[in-house]
Amino acid sequence: AMDGAPPPTSPSGLSAYVAVSQLLGLTLLATTGAWLGRYRGGVAWHSPLQFNAHPLCMVLGMVFLQGDALLVYRVFRHEAKRSTKVLHALLHGLALVIALVGIIAVFESHRTKGIPDMYSLHSWCGMAAFVLYLLQWLLGCGFFLFPGASFSLRGRYKPQHIFFGIALFILSITSCLLGITEMLLFKISDSYSHFVPEGILANTLGVLLVAFGLVVGYVLTREEWKRPPLAEEMALSMDFKTLTEGESPGG
């Protein structure tokens, strides 16, 4: 940039949509906590309440943090690409760790109470989302964060990485919706159809999950809101391609 030039700004509307996504994200976390605290007794490890750590961790990790990790390249549009990559990977990694805690909680709770594992559609979708998310994170780190992958290999894998990132976000939200429904049918099946407060609150959480996913998805799919490559990044890309592919920058 030339000296005295105004600082780069975000495209019109982007900041508003990002702010709405964060408001929705914090609201769905608060709603999850209110549901578990008001109607399910709260959260505690190594106790009958251990199971409640599962929905809290999954909403926090597999939805809120995963969504924020996807938004990194839209929010930090003018920062160094390397720093943005690291933040993207760290947020996804933190989401995985928190989700793993939630998975451990449900398996330990089931074992203590003698409940069978992995028989429901929710558990199948949820475990698939976690395993594929872990694989996506490992492949992303291997291709984009650590040196070694060639320029052409990165270019061929990038569309798959983007597609599966969005697909896994959708699968994670779907798994949460299935889990909410399953939990309500187990806990309040006799009164759920009478519009009891717990059912209404849990349904509201489901609506918030869908709304958060829609707003994040809208931001991610707006072509004009994609992060523009900086001039120095384009030069580095050409140098990297020359070193890894043996091509000249003008080739």
Automatic annotation (TrEMBL):
Cofactor: heme b
InterPro entries: CYB561/CYBRD1-like, Cyt_b561/ferric_Rdtase_TM
Topology with respect to the bilayer: Multi-pass membrane protein
Transmembrane segments: 12-36, 56-76, 88-107, 127-149, 161-180, 200-220
Reaction equation(s) it catalyzes: monodehydro-L-ascorbate radical(out) + L-ascorbate(in) = monodehydro-L-ascorbate radical(in) + L-ascorbate(out)
Assigned keywords, A-Z: Cytoplasmic vesicle, Electron transport, Heme, Iron, Membrane, Metal-binding, Translocase, Transmembrane, Transmembrane helix, Transport
Domain Cytochrome b561: 20-221
Domain of life: Eukaryota
Keyword Membrane: yes
Localization terms from the record: Cytoplasmic vesicle, Secretory vesicle, Chromaffin granule membrane
GO CC terms, sorted: chromaffin granule membrane; lysosomal membrane
GO function terms (MF aspect): metal ion binding; oxidoreductase activity
Protein name (record): Transmembrane ascorbate-dependent reductase CYB561
Organism for this UniProt entry: Machaerirhynchus nigripectus
Gene: Cyb561
